[in-house]
Amino acid sequence: MIRCRAIIIHDGKLLVVKHPHNTSFAALPGGHLEWGEDVIECMSREIEEELGVKPEIGRLLYINTFADGENSQPMEFFFEVKNGKDYVDSEKLVRSHAHEIAEIIWASPTDNIKILPQQLGQDFKESRVLSDTVRYISGFRKIS
After folding, report:
1. Residue 15 belongs to what H/E stretch?
2. Which residues are registered as beta bridge partners of 137?
């Protein structure tokens, strides 16, 4: 399973979402790659559906893989979105897939919010999310 997720930062805050099925943590917006779609197309489609704004997609910042149940091993690609200011009032926009999101939060590095993947959340708290290097996160073992 391949997923694409957006790293949207504005005024030092990171846009994270909580999903209806589990609100105990926050994740970055995005979703699953559809058949025949490339990762950039997926990123653009998912963000427009969930947040109602066409993203200006920048650099690939993270790749994450982890075990999700017994028979699922998702791979996630996290892309920078350059037009963060356009998402400030995204809750008020027309969002065709708004039902997939329970809450939209602009998190500060000092907020006590559990952000997954954990390494990305820690990097955000330490102002290390934006980088010229793609970083790999693994739920099996950390790759440096």
Report:
1. strand 13-19
2. 64
CB 14 within 8 A of CB 104: no
Nearest CA among 75, 50, 51, 74 for reference residue 62: 75
Beta-ladder partners of 62: 78, 135
What is the token pair recorded at 27?
A: 């994740």
pLDDT tens for each residue of 39-89: 999 999 999 999 999 999 999 999 999 887 777 888 999 999 999 999 999
Closest listed residue to residue 27, CA positions, set 69, 72, 62:
62
Instruction: Give 21-70 as a DSSP string.
Output: TEEEEEE-SEEEPPTT--HHHHHHHHHHHHHSS---EEEEEEEEE---SS
DSSP output for 80-118: EES-GGGGTTGGGS--TTGGG-SEEEEE-TTS---BSSH
pLDDT 10s digits, 96-134: 888 899 999 999 999 999 999 999 999 999 999 999 999
